[in-house]
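Chapter summary example.
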Amino acid sequence: PSIGDNKTSDNLAPTTPEPLTIVSPMNLAFGSICDNIPNKNISKMIIVNDLKPGSNFEYEGNIYQVLNLALNKTAMRQMIVKIKVKNVRTGVINEMSFTGGDKVELAHVDKKVMQYLYDDGTSLVFMDNETYEQIEINKDRLTWEMQFMKPNDNVTISMYENEVLGVILPDKVT
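The structure predicted for these 174 residues follows.
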């Protein structure tokens, strides 16, 4: 029999061609490396030009919230990005300058509605309304907010990677 014939002889069965598998050098080099990286540890970098008021980013180990952004571009120089930011951990407001095209790590700050339960003397206890888990926040961090909270009030807790950043009070308190 010639090549391509589907005729069979006594001990040969008709065969179907196997599908071709194309292997590129990129698949060999990066395939196994990329498969082992967990998605949660991949940080998302963002160009400072794309930041907007209200967005959060991590820079030099601190988490900042953008309050105001000014882009300054002159004909002879590279763009300068001046950002008025609030350090989310400390509450300090300052101004930072970057060169256009610099990148920072985007920080995803989670916000959960929780119920304020009680004051145990050294910390305030809050309960997640969905999972009923309780967390304690040191009383010293919430001295101003304590004036406006009473037991059973719902407040919003902001968290970054399981670190409590602060309490956001409701717009109206009774």
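To summarize the output: The first helix runs from residue 25 to 35.
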